[in-house]
Write a structure and sequence with these properties.
Blueprint (H helix, E strand, L loop, with lengths): L7 E9 L2 E6 L3 E6 L13 E7 L2 E7 H4 L12 E9 L2 E9 L1 E9 L3 E2 L13 E7 L2 E6 L1 H4 L2 H26 L1
Parallel strand pairs: 2-11, 5-7
Antiparallel strand pairs: 1-2, 1-8, 3-6, 4-5, 6-7, 9-10, 10-11
Length: 175
Amino acid sequence: MTEVIAKTAQYVTFALGGELFGVEVSRTREILSLIPVTSVPQTPDYMLGVINLRGQVVPVVDMRLKLGMPKSKATQDTCIIVIEVQVDAEILVVGAQADSVREVLEINLDQIEPPPRMGAKLKTEYIRGMGKVDDQFMILLDIDRVFSSEELALVQDMGELGLHEEQNEEELAES
C-alpha cells in the first residue's frame, strides 16, 4: 500500500478588519505587542515610523492602509509582525502592524486556490492565493510583492535615517 503525503505550508494568520490574512511562517521573525513607534516626517501615510528592535531600526507599516483599508484605532490586540521581505538579493526587516494575530495554521497545498481575477483595476499581484480554513477564506500574501521596489528603498532609507538619528541622540546624551 502506497502512502500519499499531503504537502502543507504554515502561515501566521492575522486580522485586518473582518478579513483574515496569512504570511509564511518562514518569513516571520517575531510578533510584538504594540510598542511606541517613532514617526519619520515626509513618508507615506501607511509608513508609521520606526522602532528599535534590540539595536536594529525597523520600519513599521500599517497594513490596513497599505492594503487600501480604512485606518483603525489601536486596541489591546493590535500588534507588530516582524517580517523579512526580499528585494533583489537583499533581505529587509519590516514591522507590519495588524489588528490582531490569530494563530499559526498548517494548510494543505490542495486547499489553496489561485488569486481571484477581479479585473485590471484591482491589484491582486500581492496575493499568493486564497486558503480555505473551515468555512472562511484567508488571503495568503506574497509579502515580497506587497511593497514595490521604490517602497522598499524608502523603507530601507527610513531604517538608515532612524539609525543615524538614534546614534546622534546617543552622542548628545553622552556629552
